[in-house]
From TrEMBL, chains A, B:
Highest taxon above the source species: Bacteria
Annotated organism of origin: Phaeodactylibacter xiamenensis
Domain DUF2520: 127-251
PANTHER family assigned to the protein according to its UniProt record, in alphabetical order: CONSERVED HYPOTHETICAL ALANINE AND LEUCINE RICH PROTEIN
Protein name as catalogued: DUF2520 domain-containing protein
Domain Putative oxidoreductase/dehydrogenase Rossmann-like as annotated: residue spans: 2-100
Coiled coil regions in record: none
Listed transmembrane segments: none
Gene3D superfamilies (UniProt xref): NAD(P)-binding Rossmann-like Domain, ProC-like, C-terminal domain
Length: 255, 255
């Protein structure tokens, strides 16, 4: 299968390299700056392009790995240069398929659910691939490709993918914010950073072996109001953290 | 050194077993119910007792592993039966040392910073031991004992320990709540549980290798208001989660 990758950023780079290693023929790499497309194109034996009009009509699959805001307009522009039989798939967690289906009959979604950084190797076998497509045949085709690079392939519709994106905010963005909060506090108390690492490890182990609320401990679930009030007094100089503390405490008390 | 352990719960059990294995002589195990003290006492070759008046005056170290609320009154009661030269240490993260020092000259703190469950083995070598004491000699004595069971021993004063306890709430209680939030969302969308596991693993890796705020991604830090508003609409049926979402989003925007 001949694949063109539109975008040479985090997702485009990782997908190009991974699909190339899996034996797929990467025809072209597009970036608005030819300079950005060239090093990646060299690595995967593709032609670098910087104009959508240069996209090859031989592409069987065209993977859109551009910013979410650009997906709709790039899809519309490509429809002037590619035959309608080409399979066009975006790689975004946050973007509904309707942004493709308005301009394109053979649309698909090929979304790697992971935080990827350019230049940092990622083991795609461990990355869940979320697939969707206009028809069962397209879904099957994309599932087969995904199965060549990952052990975890899921058929995920628009509504599910929107939920997944929101859940990812809690598990990644918000968990990272909890790490920052404890980091700030221990740093202010001049305590060494590694002091909380064993607790974090145990937390993740306990919370992933069972339903997390079954592993919940602490003053919120015990409704230990004295400790909660003492903690809030300690946070007097951190109004944002105080608000976070109250909000999560109330949430835990619904468990 | 002869040690008496007051309390046969999670912390008392783990400390008795671990100190016994490290070669310390455990004289007595106290529990209000003799039935609770007996099995643990047998394992470590100690005498089970259920009355504070039975505490041995030969104890050189008396470790208080009772509930936070009980520490003050047990310390006061023990002062009627133990010589003032006995070293009395509590094992609590949340309790200031003043609750001991009011009744006791030779007070100390011997706090294992970890979430412990009775019956589940814990590798104490990886558990940070937080030490405090009335005098440098007591601090040194407790640091030496802690060093026999753990690779991580820290001298931590009352104020630092209070901060540590609060930071532990963020890293354990609140992180676990984030896991529960994403679990609830993916379950409602009928997605398999393991789909977010790789993202959680990458989150912890990235957030512990550097200052977590440097690893922050997502709509909050990007100030992507459209996505934030879409997420809040998705949370319409989860008012507590909606409040959590807003609070953490505001906090991230202070990074």
């Amino acid at each position: 299968m001949k694949i063109t990758i539109i975008g040479a950023g985090n997702v485009g780079s990782h997908l190009a390299l991974t699909l190339h290693r899996a034996g797929y023929s990467i025809l072209q790499i597009y970036s608005r700056q030819l300079l950005n497309a060239r090093p990646l194109a060299e690595k995967v034996g593709a032609t670098p392009i910087h104009q959508l009009s240069a996209v090859s009509t031989e592409s069987e699959l065209c993977l859109l790995a551009v910013k979410d805001d650009a997906i709709e307009v790039v899809a519309q522009n490509l429809s002037a240069f590619l035959p309608k039989t080409t399979l066009l798939a975006h790689t975004s967690g946050a973007t509904p398929s309707t942004l493709l289906s308005d301009a394109w009959a053979n649309w698909g979604v090929f979304y790697p659910l992971q935080t990827l950084s350019k230049g940092q190797p990622a083991d795609f076998t461990q990355i869940p691939m979320c697939i969707d497509g206009a028809t069962p045949a397209i879904q099957q085709a994309l599932q087969e490709i995904a199965g060549q690079i990952s052990h975890q392939v899921h058929l995920v519709n628009d509504e599910q993918r929107a939920t997944l994106h929101l859940a990812a905010v809690f598990i990644n963005n918000f968990t990272n914010a909890m790490l920052q909060a404890s980091h700030t506090l221990t740093e202010e108390a001049q305590l060494p950073r590694e002091i909380l690492s064993p607790l974090l490890q145990a937390t993740i182990q306990k919370g992933t072996r069972q339903e997390p609320r079954m592993a919940q401990t602490g003053p919120a679930i015990r409704r230990d109001q004295q400790t909660i009030e003492r903690h809030l007094r300690q946070l007097a100089n951190h109004p944002e953290l105080s608000t976070v503390y109250k909000a999560i405490t109330s949430y835990i008390q619904t468990f």
